[in-house]
Amino acid sequence: MTTTPLRILVVDDKADAARMLQVLLRCEGHEARIAFDGPAAIEAATLLRPDVVLLDLTLAGMSGVEAAAELRCLPELSACRLVAVTGHGEERLPSPSPFDHHFPKPVDHAALLGYLARIEAARTPTFLAAAVA
Predict the structure, then answer these.
(1) In sequence order, which residues have a C-beta less than 8 Å from that of residue 83 and are 6 or more positions away?
(2) Bridge partners, 7 (sequence order)
(3) pLDDT, tens digit only, all 133 positions of the chain
């Protein structure tokens, strides 16, 4: 089945970790961009309008939770999936959480790609899925 690649924003203040995820995502055919802090993530998300934001929680200056809360307030990003990517457990997430999902670091690549595949499949129009099947 043909799907449209996801637009994904990777936000991590550790450049090597961000670039590694970007390479993985691009190898899978997705459009992947990087931001290294919360304000840059908000600016990039406003321009890119990603389908998914992979957001580290421990960013300098503005935490990932604060950035996620701001992203949730932008109507143009209402369909965007926010995913916490952190070395901390889910207990560090506020309740209610602004995140749709959580991946602990180091990210299990197979689990991440499976999650993204489910998002892609959900975006495929029913008539297209029936025509291909």
Answers:
(1) 52, 53, 54, 55, 99, 100, 101, 102, 103, 115
(2) 31
(3) 456 899 999 999 999 999 999 999 999 999 999 999 999 999 999 999 999 999 999 998 899 999 999 999 999 999 999 999 988 666 667 778 899 999 998 999 999 999 999 999 888 665 554 555 5
Cis peptide before 5 (omega within 30 of 0): no
Give the domains, in start order, of the chain with CATH numbers: 7-132 (3.40.50.2300)
Give the other-Cβ count within 10 Å of 8's Cβ.
25
Name 114's Cβ contacts closer than 8 Å, sequence gap at least 6. Answer: none
The model's pTM is 0.89
Two structure tokens written together for 6: 């996801």
Burial of 57 (0-12, 13-18, 19+ CB in 10 A): buried
Q: In this structure, are residues 8 and 54 in contact, taking their beta carbons and an 8 Å threshold?
A: yes
- Cβ neighbours of residue 38 closer than 8 Å, sequence gap 6 or more: 11, 59, 61, 62, 63, 64, 66, 67, 70
